[in-house]
Amino acid sequence: MRLATLAQGGPDGTLVMVSTDGIRCARVARWPTLQSVIERWSDAEADLQAVNQKLAAGGGELLDSGALLAPLPRAWQWLDGSVYPSHAQLMDKALGITPDKPDWPPMYQGVSDTFFAPRADVPMADEALGIDFEGEFGIIVDTVPMGTSVEDAREHIRLIVQINDWSLRALAGREMKSGFGWIQAKPPCGMAPFAITPDELGDSWRDARPHLHLAVDWNGERFGNAHGGPMAYGFDELVAHAARTRTLVAGTVIGSGTVSNANFREVGSSCIAERRGIEIVDEGAARTGFMRYGDTVRMEAKLADGRAPFGVIEQRVVQP
């Protein structure tokens, strides 16, 4: 199933189901928002399936993709991991540091009161702050009890999403060194238009990992096409880690961190910082600049058959 949110009905929008081809949509009686569904998934699932069957039979109305918000325009909680080893190892080498390597998945808690729409103009405070995109995958869970095991965590993964985790690199270093979390360096994220159930990925969802490529274009030119599979920790492990000492509220969004592959020189990168890290290692200095006002980034994850299950993120950086 594919779920989306129309820019109607208040800050949380209006929930619609979307056909497999992304052309038609239909509302779901009794369930006005995605948050209402995720809070009572077992009660809502039959209604969702009924509307999905209606769409499969050719029902529904034409979808105006330009009228879509993020599937969750705001969420109770956003937790972002960093689980692609090639990205972390490259950045450590480029920066000349040897950090302590924890035996648990690195994760921070970021701003969740806004997820930018997939085709939004995104305001950034200053070009000098090192504006960067980060292509990621993410999940949305229902209520996860404190102490949930890795095995049980899989049952709480209700939806998969595609994320652009915006970053301001000039501010990140000093905030990391403070020993506290990011505040200024991490503006709100963007989210692709469709949140999908794991079965939509078929065999491309294995071991709680998304096995598909994420194509990233910067100003119309291909920047990276990394594969989502080589996560050091699956999303089930990220859920269990986050829930060790707290109950995760329904609607919590958890990200993978920047998608990265060990052969990044061949497949490219999902963020500018990684490209600059390659240049530092190979050439002694970074030569690629960060984003400027008016720049665009496009992200589209594709299955082997060419389908884009999450739709497309295409955002432009603008002045506040």
User: How big is the Rg?
Assistant: 19 Å
What string, H for helix and E for strand, traces the elements in order?
Answer: EEEHHEEHEEEEEHEEHEEEEEEHEHHEE
**Low-pLDDT windows of residues:** none
Average pLDDT, all residues? 95
How far the N terminus sits from the C terminus, by CA atoms, comes to 36 Å
- Report strand order across the widest sheet: 6-5-19-10-11-13-7
Classify the secondary structure makeup into a structural class: alpha+beta
The strand count comes to 21
Helix content: 10-25%
Helix tally equals 8
Work out the strand percent. 25-35%
Inertia-based shape:
globular
Biggest sheet, in brief? 7 strands, mixed
Describe the structure.
The chain has 320 residues and is of the alpha+beta class. The chain has 8 helices and 21 strands. The chain has helices at 34-39, 41-56, 85-95, 150-153, 169-177, 235-242, 264-267, 272-283; strands at residues 2-6, 14-18, 24-27, 61-62, 78-81, 107-110, 115-116, 121-123, 131-132, 135-141, 157-164, 167-168, 189-191, 195-196, 205-206, 209-210, 213-218, 221-227, 253-255, 296-302, 313-318. The protein has a 7-stranded mixed beta sheet, covered by helices on one side. A 5-stranded antiparallel beta sheet has the order 4-3-2-1-14. A 5-stranded mixed beta sheet has the order 8-21-20-17-18, with no helix packed on it. A hairpin with a 5-residue loop joins strand 2 and strand 3 (24-27). The radius of gyration is 19 Å and the shape is globular. It starts with a strand and ends with a strand. The model has no long low-confidence stretch (mean pLDDT 95).
